[in-house]
Amino acid sequence: MKHRRRIGKQDFPVAEVRRFLEPGPVVLVSSAYRGATNIMTMGWHMVMEFSPSLVACMIASANHSFELIRKSRECVINVPEAALADAVVGVGNCSGADVDKFARFRLTASPATFVEAPLIAECFANLECRLYDAAMVRKYNVFIWEVVKAHAPAAPKYPKTMHYRGEGMFMLSGASANWRRKFRPGML
Amino acid sequence: MKHRRRIGKQDFPVAEVRRFLEPGPVVLVSSAYRGATNIMTMGWHMVMEFSPSLVACMIASANHSFELIRKSRECVINVPEAALADAVVGVGNCSGADVDKFARFRLTASPATFVEAPLIAECFANLECRLYDAAMVRKYNVFIWEVVKAHAPAAPKYPKTMHYRGEGMFMLSGASANWRRKFRPGML
Questions:
Q1: pTM of this prediction?
Q2: Contact residues, chain B, for A184 at CB < 8 Å
């Protein structure tokens, strides 16, 4: 559990959360329902709209978090940096039915502003989500969320993220490339 | 248009295409309808299921490709390597209503096996897709695809991909990290 640091955060515009989610990082989803909380590791998500700020994600019903999320109709999508890899992998390989993942992985549950689900303080960014559309839940376990509040540091601009490839392998985010000069203004 | 090379490909298991899509790269979507073809750059996609191999993606209706894709109910999701950055950015910043993007960006349209939409030969992997569920198209412009055939090289195992962050900025895929020893077998 090395490389953990306090992260000073401020409000981040919800319409711009693509910056953190669109590159495809593994995230930690925190949830709460009637006093019970949990965390799961999740990699199947997609930005859908800027305003309202919509994000879809697939949460398999076998997860202990599924019922907490389905019943509370809320969650927090937390974006961990690669320094949290041990927690990211650990959280994904045990069940909230058996363990308190906040305690086991020494993650700090901080109060959110608009949802009951806790923020994970050690993560780079925290996106408070309310269920926007349940139409895809029954058939596909896909939840369509509205990000109602986002928390992120002023700097660095981009977190060092982990991206899952299956088979226990992750890709770590690499260099930045600025192609802005080749974009038409409306296409940024 | 440097660093282009011929890529020898073989059939790739459709249930394993998460390897290429789950880390969240920008992709090129090729389409065809009644003799017209087009390409668009797309970043909002999500793996949904292994078998059938399902992938969701958001294709804004303002794109010239939208009607080709909606009417043909097919597309090819092509995964470009970072060496194709000039084409990836260029394709995303002009319209198929005005230009033949295959010609302008010197991309090669190769015949697919099961769909009319062409494969882009210069891309690392090519996923032939048939529309699986149109339920989300009208409200969200989200298409749920079944990957019916995939083409990828035997090596390297992982492409060097581009991941969009908005504002003209890309993240390039970085190092690999193997956490397999920390996974429970069923969680890989």
A1: 0.97
A2: 93
